[in-house]
Amino acid sequence: MPAASSSSWKFDVFLSFCGVDTRKNFIDHLYTALKQKGIITFRDDEKLERGKYISQELLKAIEGSKYAIIVLSENYASSRWCLIELAKIVECMKETKLTVLPVFYHVDPSHVRNQTGALLEAFAKHQKDPKVNLEDVQEWKAALKEVGNISGWHVNDSHESLDIQQILKKIFSELNCKFSNIVSKDLVGIDSCVKEVLDLYLDEGLGGVRFVGVCGMGGMGKTTLAQEIFKRISNNFEASSFIDNVREETRNQGLVSLQKQLLSKILMESEIKIWNFSEGINVIGNRLRNIKVLIVLDDVDGEEQLEALAGNHDWFGPGSRIIVTSRDSHVLRRCGMNFIYTVNGLNDNDALELFCWSAFKKLHPEEDYVDLSKDFVNYANGLPLALKVLGSLLFDKEIDEWKSARDKLKAEPDRKILDILKISYDGLMNTQRDLFLDIACFFKGKNKDCIRDMITSFGYYPEYNIGVLIDKSLITINEEGTILMHDLLQEMGQEIVRQESPKEPGGRSRLWLYKDVLYVLKNNTGTEVVEGIMLNMPIEIEEHLSAEAFLKMKKLRLLKIGIIGMDIL
Questions:
Q1: How far does the chain reach from its first CA to its final CA, in angstroms?
Q2: Euclidean distance between CA atoms 414 and 416, whole angstroms
Q3: Tens digits of per-residue pLDDT, 60-101?
Q4: Under a CB-based contact definition with an 8 Å cutoff, are residues 137 and 91 in contact?
């Protein structure tokens, strides 16, 4: 749906119409269509029209609207109420506050411009009415002539539903265009991604039904990208639906509930009767196969979710587009995506801008906070989630609090960020978790071929499980075969290990920090849970350690001792 209305107006659209002609047909359908698209529309209450005088509420509604749709029907000019509205609309239009969109409903536009036929008779009656000021009549006639000269829609023998779709498309696209030009703290750096996906994967010229996957690690902006695409193009479809949090809702409500939600949004029916998973599949496939739809399924983590909600291309009408976001590219490949788009981190300039929107509510950092801001941006390493969370925490804080927060992050990562990242880790099997933790603590930056035999001996089945970690956006492998991991994912993995025994390093499964390793080995506090130790010693430091320190470490499988700059296995 379009972004919320600007603070400069209260309503997106004001509807001006003659109730006896159009209230229960054209206006009712138009109002419902606008409402379904999330366009905030003012339509007067039917009871108001029975009064003698137009209310101040209506005049203020005109002043507070971005668009005025004037439905000029046969009896429009017979209503003083309508003509007072019309004069107010034209007044606001001349002050450039209001865009006027006329609809010539079963009337000839030339009759409106020249005020002939029924319009001529209506004004003649007003002029004879002793209660009507003749100056007002002249103002009404001038206003009507001005509106008659504006290009609009001529609704006569055409299908009204098609005319309504054209009106909707114009308003929806213009509202979205206006808001897309406003710099938003949530949309920094995303415009080029939106354009790339639209041009390469969602172009209507591609024809047929298209399934497009959007993947990337947690917090990278997959949902934001999908929301922006949905907002920009949903008006090009007969119906649309954005299903949030599919992974979480599947666990909490079940797939049948999501099937009902999808159908309810597409078909605009509040009561959808589905009793089981299989019935839902049949209903979706049968009811939507002739409808051109846009559907977004956000945060999918299982094949059964796609089977329930968008199992096949032939479920949907020609031109339909199905967008699926997931952290797991393998799920997307298994489910037959036509294309998969990977969301990457922000560059340094965009990252600083996004951080500043949260921390300062503006594009650039305060003068005294420039270096500190860059420290936090470097820490986030291009991850939008981290940039927004950290910026929000630091908003309106003194410089000493910023320094303290920076130092705190070195010892204790932000819980909100880690909880989002940990979702992918929680979905792993035990051996995959162990492999991930080994990479986070020991093997990030190592060549996978150089450590293949070692991790094979640990029972990790690297040929398969490394692929799983890549699919779930937890690691990447570059062209040289080096294992890479986002800094915050590495920190998340290391924090998982630290929490195994927060105060005593000897109770942790992995030891990689110089001070922790020395403490455990010098004080003989190692326990049987210790599985791996990496000790990189500065070349100028000499330490004397006893072999007895290892006696309690019954599960020790990895011992790596080296000098910084030179590893010795």
A1: 59
A2: 6
A3: 889 889 999 999 999 998 888 889 999 999 999 988 778 999
A4: no
The pLDDT tens digits for 398-444 are 999 999 999 999 888 999 999 999 999 999 999 999 999 999 999 99
CB 69 within 8 A of CB 16: yes
Kindly report the backbone phi and psi dihedral angles of residue 296, in degrees, each rounded to the nearest multiple of 5, phi listed first.
-115, 125
What is the C-alpha separation between 185 and 384, in angstroms, rounded? 10
Question: Who contacts 323 (Cβ-Cβ below 8 Å, separation ≥6)?
Answer: 202, 212, 213, 214, 226, 229, 230, 294, 295, 296, 297
Query: Which candidate, 51, 44, 41, places its Cα nearest to that of 19?
Result: 44
Backbone angles phi and psi of 363, in degrees to 5: -70, -30
Residue 83 to residue 75: CA distance in whole angstroms: 11
Q: Which residues are catalytic?
A: 85
Q: How far apart are CA 87 and CA 94, in angstroms?
A: 11
- Output the six-digit token pair for 289: 């196969």
The pTM (predicted TM-score) of the whole model is 0.75
**Rounded Cα gap, residues 131 and 482, in angstroms:** 87
d(CA 437, CA 496): 8
Token reading at 279: 């019935």
Reduced to 3 states (helix: H, G, I; strand: E, B; else coil), residue 362 is coil
Task: Read off the DSSP letter of residue 547.
Answer: G
